[in-house]
Amino acid sequence: MASLIRITYNIWALLVFLALVCEARVITDGGFVGTRGDHFVLNGSPFLFNGFNSYWMMNLAADPIERYKVSQVFREASAAGLSVCRTWAFSDGGGDRALQMSPGIYNERVFQALDFVISEARNYGIRLILSLANNYNDFGGRPQYVQWARNAGVQQLSSNDDFYTNPAIKGYYKNHVGKVLTRVNTITRIPYKDDSMIMAWELMNEPRCQADYSGRTINGWVQEMATFVKSIDNKHLLEIGMEGFYGDSMSEKKQNNPGYQVGTDFISNNLIKEIDFTTMHAYPDIWLSGQNDYSQMAFMQKWMGSHWEDSRMILKKPLVIAEFGKSSKDSGYSVNGRDIFLNTVYRNIYNLARSGGGGGIGGGLVWQLMAEGMEQYHDGYEIILPENPTTGGVISSQSRQMTALSHLF
Q1: Can you give the pTM of this predicted structure?
Q2: What is the chain's alpha carbon radius of gyration, rounded to the nearest angstrom?
Q3: Do the Cβ atoms of 275 and 269 come closer than 8 Å?
Q4: Of 202, 239, 243, 323, which residue is the catalytic one?
Q5: Is 301 helix (H, G, I), strand (E, B) or coil?
Q6: Cα–Cα distance between 207 and 240 in angstroms, integer?
Q7: Domain ranges, ordered by start, for the chain
Q8: pLDDT tens for each residue of the chain, 409 residues long
Q9: Residue 329: what are its φ and ψ, rounded to 5°?
Q10: Please, which residues have CB within 8 angstroms of residue 96's CB and are 6 or more apart in sequence?
Q11: Is 323 part of the annotated catalytic residue set?
Q12: Residues 76, 120, 202, 206: which is the catalytic one?
């Protein structure tokens, strides 16, 4: 009897081992996300997803005591069916958690924090969109690059918009891109440029240019930088990081903007062939502040529909709703109101994907998920899944529907 028990146990152990190996292969050898026309594809099949933003991950993981919160959010996101996360692969300038302390000088401890984020994403089967710079001065961004150039004695710098045109500053940015893309992860031992769990690179979070509202200045910068990224890494997808504002190339489209331009051109910028998919952000609670929920939602639906149509018919690339949310800092805010807003956005994403035959749009990335005990990062949009069960239910439902939809095509 004892020998029979041992045999039975050994068989069970072998089956468990094989199951773990198979699971590991699914995560490790999952393939790169690609595009086919206006569809995302993975291993030849349609790839539709529900995802989230957690910009803070590398910054938090730089503190070993706080690092568990990164794992916690990935675990909770995975349980909710979320499969794509967008986060920062930059932190420029001062502070003990800066990744790039000065041009070309990196903090290895912080780089290892990014290694950890990428490794944990792999462990939970969540693909990453990694942003390479910021438009704003949070975490350094464009202003820090320009200040570095001033400190180095670069002449004729008039504003932060010189980031897009000054050769020295463009060199700083290219150096950062090269450093990140060729990094070998100290945990997985996989070079970033060869890691299939990275879904895409993002050139910059929300590029804007006050010196040229037409979109032409940013167009030149995107063309140069996209070509440079692809010269190092042609395995991964690439996107710009745009909010979706229309520019001068098709002036009739500017009526869709929320009353202003920011120096980008959704059409011409995304026509650049090295750009693989389009993005839009949506904050009607900020852009149309003071208007009622009905007006804001009407704008949101038109904003989404316009970009979906242009992505399909003009750009012929898939679209991602890369940021959206509803802030608790707004007057009249309620969790129920946020749930209604998210549910409406999700329903639109699902319906657009379905009517496009699984194409035209890949999914949405809600802004933003956090763990408990992260008050210093709160911006009004934070969603803590264990504390927000109704919102978690809305998110999980969308994940299930997008997964089911991907199997129909």
Answers
A1: 0.92
A2: 22
A3: yes
A4: 323
A5: helix
A6: 8
A7: 31-406
A8: 444 334 433 443 343 333 333 333 334 447 999 999 999 999 999 999 999 999 999 999 999 999 999 999 999 999 999 999 999 999 999 788 999 999 999 999 999 999 999 999 999 999 999 999 999 999 999 999 999 999 999 999 999 999 999 999 999 999 999 999 999 999 999 999 999 999 999 999 999 999 999 999 999 999 999 999 999 999 999 999 999 999 999 999 999 999 999 999 999 999 999 999 999 999 999 999 888 889 999 999 999 999 999 999 999 999 999 999 999 998 888 999 999 999 999 999 999 999 988 889 999 999 999 999 999 999 999 999 999 999 999 999 999 999 999 998 8
A9: -85, -10
A10: 62, 107
A11: yes
A12: 206
- Supply the CATH classification number for the domain 31-406: 3.20.20.80
- CB-based burial label for 106 (10 Å; 0-12, 13-18, 19+): middle
Q: Which residues contact 151 (CB under 8 A, 6 or more apart)?
A: none
**Residue in this structure with the two tokens 């995107």, named with its chain if needed:** 222
Given a contact cutoff of 8 angstroms between Cβ atoms, the answer to whether 214 and 247 are in contact is yes
- The structure tokens listed for 118 are 């990428």
**Residue 206 a catalytic site member:** yes
Contacts of 92 (CB under 8 A, 6+ apart): 98, 99, 100, 133, 134, 139, 140, 141, 144, 145
**Which tokens belong to 171?**
């060199």
Where in 43-168 does DSSP place strands (E)?
45-46, 49-53, 84-88, 100-102, 105-106, 127-131
Report the Cα 260 to chain-centroid distance in Å: 24
> Looking at beta carbons, which pairs linking 313-317 to residues 24 or more positions away fall under 8 Å?
314/267, 314/271, 315/38, 315/267, 315/270, 315/271, 315/278, 316/37, 316/38, 317/35, 317/38, 317/270, 317/275, 317/276, 317/277, 317/278
User: How far is residue 116 CA from its own chain's centroid?
Assistant: 17
- Report d(CA 103, CA 87) in Å as an integer: 21
| Assigned token pair, 108 | 């290895």
